[in-house]
Write a structure and sequence with these properties.
Layout (H helix, E strand, L loop, with lengths): L2 H25 L7 H15 L1 H9 L3 H40 L15 H24 L9 H7 L15 H12 L1 H4 L4 E7 L6 H9 L2 H6 L2 E8 L4 H13 L8 H12 L4 E8 L4 H8 L9 E7 L2 H7 L4 E2 L5 H13 L8 H12 L2
Parallel strand pairs: 1-4, 1-5, 2-3, 3-4
């Protein structure tokens, strides 16, 4: 997923959260159908499901899909502005209600939106719903697929990850500290031989970067006797993954050997040792493949860990572990990240002419 679509996916998630939180209050608004917010919510979910496929087709040069994505982005921004207006109106109504009550006046129930703006709010929302419906129709005409990416194209576009950390890392201090404790804290280990730590979040949110930080942490390096990093990506090939892990553990090539021999060797290499394996960018939803991969790891010492990074909560459910979801970065961290990639610095102090547009774009991240 390209940077633009990462931001769009993030924005859609923010809009979904806002629609869910304001739904019950909105129903109280006289003259406005309570189904409208739910319509927007469902259509946003439908759009979000095909963003990966749309991005894949856009990268292949499909101009119609690019135009569709541009329209989705414009509509998302307009909906965000409208929901912000709603929040302001709600705050004003609450303030007026509290002021009236404090003055001893008869307390009356205020609706979610102030009355003078009701017609304007209703009209804007109806227009947005109409635009959503048109975008959904065009989605069908473009044959965009749900939760499907052209995997061969995806593999070529996204470079395989490595264990080497990013030169700059913004935010995630709390997440890093918490997961580090999960990895190395003796109290967390208990009597469990092997624990899975899934880091979950949308594409581009920083799952791999966080895993790299953890993998290279000095405390982690000294705590685990053996470590291995594998970029799994879209093809979950048990043979290839096992081969990569074994090569990392033993530093010996095992080309030409079958899965049975590879897993026996891996089991022997890990027997009685505390290890950490990172499986980056996992998409596999096949329980049989997952359990086949894990067989050699049962021989490790107590406290051994496997970190997986994934966008897919179904992947997490297969592992049987509790997920560690990553939320969006703070605005300040988004500004620093944007400045780094655009200007090779961490702020706009020497580029004040770009500061306003930089901050505006960061809010859309």
């Amino acid at each position: 997923m390209a940077i633009g679509e990462i931001f769009l996916s993030s924005l859609i998630q923010v809009l979904l959260d806002k629609l869910v939180s304001m739904g019950l209050d909105y129903v109280q608004r006289e003259g406005v159908s309570p189904t409208l917010p739910r319509k927007c919510e469902k259509m946003l979910e439908t759009i979000n499901e095909v963003l990966d496929d749309a991005e894949d087709k856009q990268l292949d040069g499909d101009r119609l899909v690019k135009r569709w994505l541009d329209n989705v982005r414009d509509l998302a921004y307009d909906l965000e502005d409208l929901l912000d207006e709603f929040e302001i109106e709600a705050a004003q109504a609450k303030s007026e209600a509290e002021s009236s009550t404090s003055k001893g006046q008869l307390k009356r129930k205020f609706p979610f939106f102030s009355q003078p703006c009701s017609l304007a709010s209703k009209t804007k929302l109806l227009e947005i719903v109409d635009r959503f419906e048109e975008i959904i129709k065009r989605k069908s005409l473009l044959s965009l697929r749900k939760n499907v990416v052209d995997r061969s194209h995806y593999t070529n576009e996204r470079l395989p990850s490595t264990s080497l950390p990013e030169s700059q890392f913004f935010g995630r201090e709390k997440e890093e500290e918490h997961i580090l404790e999960l990895l190395t804290g003796e109290a967390e280990n208990g009597n469990t031989t092997l624990s899975i730590v899934p880091i979950v979040g949308m594409g581009g949110i920083g799952k791999t970067a966080l895993a790299q930080r953890l993998y290279n942490d000095a405390k982690v390096s000294s705590y685990f006797e053996k470590r291995a990093w594998v970029c799994v990506s879209d093809v979950f090939n048990v043979l290839d993954i096992t081969k990569t892990i074994l090569r990392s553990i033993t530093e010996v090539s095992n080309e030409g050997e079958d899965l049975n021999r590879l897993q026996v060797k891996l089991k022997d290499s890990l027997s009685g040792k505390k290890f950490l394996v990172v499986l980056d960018d996992v998409w596999n939803e096949n329980y049989g493949q997952w359990t086949a991969l894990l067989k050699p790891f049962e021989a490790g010492a107590k406290g051994s860990k496997i970190i997986i990074t994934t966008r897919n909560y179904t992947v997490v459910s297969i592992t049987g572990a509790s997920s560690y979801p990553l939320k969006e970065l703070s605005l300040n961290n988004c500004i620093s990240l944007l400045a780094l990639h655009a200007l090779k610095t961490t702020n706009f102090e020497r580029h004040l002419d770009l500061e306003t547009i930089g901050k505006k774009n960061s809010r859309k991240m």
